[in-house]
Amino acid sequence: MISQVFILSSKGDHLIYKDFRGEAGSDVVGIFYEKVTALTGDQPPVVMTHRDLHFVHIRQGGLYWVATTTADASPFTVIEFLNRLTALVKDYCGSLSEKSVQMNFALIYELLDEVVDYGYIQTTSSDILKNFIQTEAVSSRPFSLFDLSNVGLFGAETQQSKVAPSSAATRPIQSSREQGGKSEIFVDVIERMSVVIGSNGVLMKADVEGEIRVKCYMPSCSEMRIGLNEELSIGKSQLRGYGAAVRVNECSFHQAVRLDEFDSHRILRLCPSQGEQTMMQYQLSDDLPSAPPFRLFPTIERDGGGRLLMYMKLRCDLTPKSTAINVCATVPVPKGSVSLSQELSSPDQSAELKPQSRAVVWQIPRFPGGTQLSALFKLEVPGLSSASMLEVGPVCLSFELPKFTATGLQIRFLRLSPVQPGPSQRWVRYMTHSDSYIIRI
């Protein structure tokens, strides 16, 4: 049973506030923000208590999504409700940014009125709610001349226009034609890597968690058929076919996915509803079909002036056609480091010393495959000793790899049956993120 639901910005500004039962005072927003900001650490507890009131919150889109209850309710139920609420807001508003919530506050209040009745959850289904929601979403993405960059001479289609941008699916499911409500369906293959590489360069741990996510903007779609790699092997089952094998340890499917053709032809069948849903999740443990995407060659020493020298050579082992983006290397440094001077191999790189976190952060916006970048960091560390030099490392990498999957999982085809009337577009996108990529020094 839910007493209140409210959404706060990272600065504590309340964007949405809905009281369903009148059991708690109006000061609960301030109480929650004081409690959550008074705690040390980046991840405060999900469940907190103030007298007889329980706060349950999650962080999505840089916002606090909070539900309160005075009953002895299961916290997992409330967390699942908040996760589903954020999914609904993303479906109907297009994104979870602060600006999007502010521009669509009337729509969000209408959603809350339909989802919760006097504290009791009624439904969180996008298909059911679309019959009752009347408020139309306001797009938070302003017009930009950069949107015209994929238009050729006299409006002809260019090669760039055949690639869906990352922001293409961040729009409401009930967009009007004036807001660009195209008939589209997006299938995203998203993977997260957890890797540990020893100081000798040997791969010690490699785990991959992936999912196939569908976002549908079609008013009606009877059935969608997705073909995966024919050579896909699950668990300890025997490898199939004669091509390059793709293996995952385990997988699970959305309850609406039909698997009658999966064992024989690796085909998934689904009647997608409007909005976003995860149709398949899979995992690969302690194995990678290819080499890790990054290798680091560090040299740590002390110069004659007592400064700490860190020479880093970072190599991207992707194919030359691939490019890593938003690469960030965080290098822990000795306590007491006061200043940093740097020599970087390309002008688009940047680095800074963060004394509070005792780390040097090296940022690389774009990193083409098959290339190597280097950086020389000179740190002023008062009282530098051999013991303090041992505080350097391990290096933590974060990155994004578009058009790449670590497992090799691919979509062979995406078919809609029956064929949709009018123009419709189908997009398949691949993305691999770093969940935890640790390189020991």
UniProtKB/TrEMBL annotation:
Origin superkingdom: Eukaryota
Spans through the membrane: none
Membrane topology reported for the UniProt record: Peripheral membrane protein
Pfam families noted in UniProt: Adap_comp_sub (PF00928), Clat_adaptor_s (PF01217)
A GO biological-process term: vesicle-mediated transport
Subcellular location: Early endosome; Golgi apparatus, trans-Golgi network membrane; Membrane, Coated pit
Main localization of the protein described in the UniProt heading: other
Gene Ontology CC entries for this record: clathrin adaptor complex; clathrin-coated pit; early endosome; Golgi apparatus
Keywords, sorted A to Z: Coated pit, Endosome, Golgi apparatus, Membrane, Protein transport, Transport
Domain MHD: 182-440
InterPro entries xref list: Adaptor_comp_med_subunit (IPR050431), AP2_Mu_C_sf (IPR036168), AP_mu_sigma_su (IPR022775), Clathrin_mu (IPR001392), Longin-like_dom_sf (IPR011012), MHD (IPR028565)
UniProt family annotation: Belongs to the adaptor complexes medium subunit family.
Reported function: Component of the adaptor protein complex 4 (AP-4). Adaptor protein complexes are vesicle coat components involved both in vesicle formation and cargo selection. They control the vesicular transport of proteins in different trafficking pathways. AP-4 forms a non clathrin-associated coat on vesicles departing the trans-Golgi network (TGN) and may be involved in the targeting of proteins from the trans-Golgi network (TGN) to the endosomal-lysosomal system.
PANTHER family, per the entry: AP COMPLEX SUBUNIT MU
Annotated protein name in UniProt: AP-4 complex subunit mu-1
Organism: Mastacembelus armatus
